[in-house]
Please model this.
Amino acid sequence: MSDVLISVEGKAGRIRLNRPKAIHALNTGMCRDMLAALDAWADDPAVEVVLIDHAASPDGDPKLSRGFCAGGDIRMIAESGAGDGVAAREFFRVEYQLNHRLFTYSKPVVAFMDGITMGGGVGISQPAKYCVATENTKFAMPETGIGLFPDVGGGWYLSRLPGRNGEYLALTGHRIDGAECVGLGLASHYLRSEMLDAAKALIIADPREIAAKLNELEEIAPEGRLLGHREEIDDLFVGDTLEEILAALEADGGEWAATQLATLRTKSPESMKVSLRLVREGRSRATFEDEMRQEFAIGARVAQRHDFIEGVRALIVDKDNAPQWSPATPEEVSDATIDAIFAPLPKSEEWNPA
Model:
């Protein structure tokens, strides 16, 4: 069975992620297959809309259907990064081309973030014109915990959130629910999961009425808990540097700030500095293409750096949850190191749209 199921139903192109035991995490082949489908449908008048979701577990096990997409093939990227990095760079290249194609696609795309939506799952859902969250949605960009950074357009999407929520989510990797996605503008609609099949059927039957059909089935999302911390986030994550943000959290003295500080102390200092700069620069990035070109340069380097390989070892391979970051403190991560990670690649190596 293919890792991604491609079909046409009625007037809709269907893309269904189908790696349930990996929570539908993306690999290079899946990204290529999705790109090929989008290319085939772009000029096909019989296809008026594209739906992206995940397939149900073939044996009906609900645990295997708990996520939309948990990210990318992290193990492969780390194994490649520990060597010549060729496969890691190819994965990033193709994945980012998919992200860009969805962002610029001429036909409406509807993504259903039912369940875990992290990393690569964010990259294929956020470009959609209609992004549906449910009570099962668990949305996060948790990359600083494994020595990576919020890529797949994270520097674009997070930087455009209200206030300092982008900095907060990028640094902490905090997981938000479907209601919070709606409140932050990361989802266009909130539907109960039991209404998704009906929504898809209505869209497939008449793609010209997508918004009306989703509005008809939508219910009012409860207020997200994160929105209750708007003032704290804006006050405490405004610092120009990571060190200033950590100092503000330490000086605050409140329970919420202390919890965030403890969380940040577990993350890669180098990755946090990369992520903070990515969000800050993302606010003024001119185009999504420019964003992806910058993220590819960063990813091509970070995939071969110590913290990413060590983070994957500690959290995913050995699961001792005790990564030994190097450098171990933010103060030891120099501006020159971050500048080198952000430096443009040679023209022959840089990323370009498919």
Remarks:
- The mean pLDDT is 95.
- The radius of gyration is 20 Å.
- The first strand starts at residue 4 and ends at 9.
